């Protein structure tokens, strides 16, 4: 019976958490790799400068801004949550996420990342 029916509803992708993500600016191809343990919609909305609850634009400010938000403000680019973000990996605790993020930063060499790694990986030394 369990093979024929789902007992749990699928959750919307926007509320999945514990992800490593990739951002590519649709205006200029600048890139960023990050990780979050929060709902991805909340984190992506912060990067875009909009409210995750209402979808309305927040006052553009560089105070506590992420690299993506700084890039968007300085270059007058628009961050599209549905088009500019890609999930690279899901799951794991904070240690796993930091390791996955570090591997992806090392592999993809994103232009907007201030940090070269989240966690030191002796594998690449």
Describe it.
- There is one protein chain.
- A hairpin with a 6-residue loop joins strand 1 and strand 2.
- 30% of the residues lie in helices and 14% in strands.
- The mean pLDDT is 88.
- By secondary structure, it is an alpha+beta fold.
- The longest helix has 15 residues, at 94-108.
- The chain has a single domain (13-114), classed as GIY-YIG endonuclease, CATH 3.40.1440.
- The protein is globular.
- It has 4 helices and 3 strands.
The total of beta strands comes to 3
Estimate the strand proportion. Answer: 5-15%
SSE order in H/E notation? EEHHHEH
CATH architecture classification: 3-Layer(aba) Sandwich
Helix percentage: 25-40%
| Mean pLDDT across all amino acids | 88
Overall domain count: 1
Tally of contiguous helical segments: 4
Q: In CATH, what is the class?
A: Alpha Beta
Based on secondary structure, the structural category is: alpha+beta
In a few lines, what is going on in this structure?
The protein has four helices and three strands. The chain is of the alpha+beta class and 125 residues long.
